[in-house]
Amino acid sequence: MKLCFILNHLYTPGGIERAVSNRLSELSKDHDVYVLTTENGHLPFYFGKHDNIKYIDINIKFKRKDDGGFKVNLYNIFFSIILFIKLQVQILRINPDVTINVIGVHTLYFVPFLLRQGKTILEHHASIYQYPPSRLRKEIMKKFKYHIFLTEEEAKLADFIENKIVIPNPIKGNHQALIPFSSRKNKILAAGRIVEIKGFDRLILAWSLIQKKHQNWILEIYGDGDKKVLDDLEALISELNLSDTVFIKPATSNIVELMLESKIYAMTSCYESFGMVLLEAMSAGMLVVSFDCPTGPRNIIDDQVGFLVEDNNIELFSEKISEIILNEDKYLDKSENAYKKSLDYSVNSVNERWNNLFLSIK
């Protein structure tokens, strides 16, 4: 089957980019896969390329807001027309059986109107709870034949569309490299884009409440993003006198390796559609703690595999971290259960669901 995946770019170290790379490497073994990016340019793909996938970049340069959002101006409107024309040219050349718009980006407004695009699929990665679509966006979404959601909860929120299918993002963990918990570093880990929605300020505040009790522990945050948010986080660390125990480091493609040597993964996002990084931490045998934010964590974590804390209850979050540190042996069964559950999200398991979908619409 000839598949064409459309997305903005693959040069950043985000969870979507990692999930796409994991998934397409396997799908390309059974299908003729094309990856059509709109704004990647000459930048290298962060997670590399695969020899049996055809990559095409349209190389449109839209003007963006500081947070990456789309600016509505004459320049971008003109290049939107150019984008539509270039998309149509490439789709006619590829002549796909299925066209998959990977994220709810600019191209979703165009894909349903392209000629010879085959069956159309829209993947929903951003939470509808966080970004409720406008009336126009809803009408465009309805024109896609199939919709992929990461969780049942997100699918239920989209009550205005039909043909909804739940397929989570896959993880690609090294299940043979688990390090005994007692041999790991006394380290709390967090990762994600340095933007307000990830709530790293909440994590720093939580750690400030207990760090004096656990001076042989450190907190490391990995990510790139908004410079203003990064500056604010660094200022908060300095203000709370945490410079010796809290470290913000650049994003890395080796995050799973870092997880394998760490004990606790902490997620303090304000919203999460899925939270793939939680699954990666579980696959590395970490103890995971997360705010019960809308909507992803509660679809992954239960009391058998981790700890869900009332959203924005920073004091309770800090108490849970401290409790784990003081009684880590008591919770090793959660680490084992988390590792076992992560196997359900392996690339092979998830791609089987994609292949079943493609067979059903052939």
TrEMBL record:
It holds the Pfam family Glycos_transf_1. It comes from the Bacteria. Residues 181-340 form the Glycosyl transferase family domain. One of its GO terms (molecular function) is glycosyltransferase activity. Gene3D superfamilies: Glycogen Phosphorylase B. SUPFAM superfamilies: UDP-Glycosyltransferase/glycogen phosphorylase. This is Glycosyltransferase family 4 protein.
